[in-house]
Amino acid sequence: MTVSASTQASPAVRVITARAVGFVLAGVALFDGAGLVYGGDSAVQTPSWAVFRAFPGPEAMGLIYIATALILVYALARPGILLAWVLSGGFCLYLVVGGSFIASWAVTDGQIVWPALSKPWGLAAIWLLVLLAKPISLPAPEASQHGQE
Amino acid sequence: MPVGPILAAAAATDSNLVPLLITLGGLLLGGGGVGGVLIARAQSKNYVQTGYRDLTGAYKEAAAASEREAADERAAKERAEYRADRWRAYSWALRDEMAAAGVVSKAIPPTDHPSET
After folding, report:
1. Residue of chain A minimizing CA distance to B1
2. Do B36 and A89 touch (CB under 8 A)?
3. Does B3 touch chain A (CB under 8 A)?
């Protein structure tokens, strides 16, 4: 056979995976945001949330989460420069939440809950990985050989 | 909302600390915002150049490529069939002529094309 089987468009899979992870991240942020808005102060009674309970408050944080999630869903449906902005924003949001935990422990001299850090910072890492995910690069279509008689 | 005594004690913050907490919250959110803008500005260039936005176009291109491949395969198969047909026609005609000349027997059919054996 003169036709090679190497012209399959396999690199596109990588983008699909990144997009799927992006939708999962949006779902998590939506869940967190809805919980914060619905529960208010009672949703974040842990010592780790002392800083963000004081400012800007759980409801405002919840709205930030929800806005981030909705913008991410919109951007994933129309991949473009907005995607870079919202992924960067989500990364920093989760990074800041983890930082606020440490600040809360330091300021209030309350209980230190080390395992609480893993969720925001782990999610921040995933947001960053999706942000840095390699774009698609399809191989140039090969010139087919019809010359053989 | 009832909470356990330990949680309630942990959640209760000294009112003296509230201004500091508010300052910290503002600083954290502001720092996160600035960091987000910086990272986005650094990365958005990539997004424009690499054509992440051309996702649908890429899918169309991939579909067109696989369609082209299928067409090539079909054409190759047709060429092979054409070659085999011509071989068959020639070999039967040759066998008939040779049989008419008395060289070979009509009972023996001609050989198939090497690709079919």
Report:
1. A42
2. yes
3. yes
Q: Is the dihedral of CA B33, B39, B42, B44 positive or negative?
A: negative
* Cβ <8 Å between B69 and A83: no
Is the previous residue joined to A141 through a cis bond, with omega within 30 degrees of 0?
no
Q: What angle do CA A48, A51, A54 make, to 5 degrees?
A: 125
Contacts of B77 (CB under 8 A, 6+ apart): none
Q: Does A114 touch chain B (CB under 8 A)?
A: no
- Residue A50's contacts (CB-CB under 8 Å, 6 or more residues apart) are A104, A107, A108, A110, B11, B13, B17, B21
pLDDT at position A60: 95
pLDDT digits (tens, 9 = 90+) for A66-102: 999 999 998 888 777 888 899 999 999 999 999 999 9
User: Which amino acid is residue A11, in one-letter code?
Assistant: P
The alpha-carbon gap from B39 to the nearest alpha carbon of chain A, in Å, equals 6
Question: Does the beta carbon of A9 lie under 8 angstroms from any beta carbon of chain B?
Answer: yes
For residues B3 and B11, is the Cβ–Cβ distance under 8 A? yes
SS3 B20: helix
Task: Mark yes or no for CB contact B55/A15 under 8 Å.
Answer: yes
A84 CB neighbours in chain B (<8 A) are: 40, 43-44, 46-47
Q: What is the sign of the dihedral through the CA atoms of A24, A54, B27 and A110? A: negative
CB contact under 8 A, A12 and B62: yes
Tell me the whole-structure pTM to 2 decimals: 0.63
Burial class of residue B4, CB neighbours in 10 A (0-12, 13-18, 19+)? exposed
DSSP conformational letter for A141: P
Q: Which amino acid is at B100?
A: A
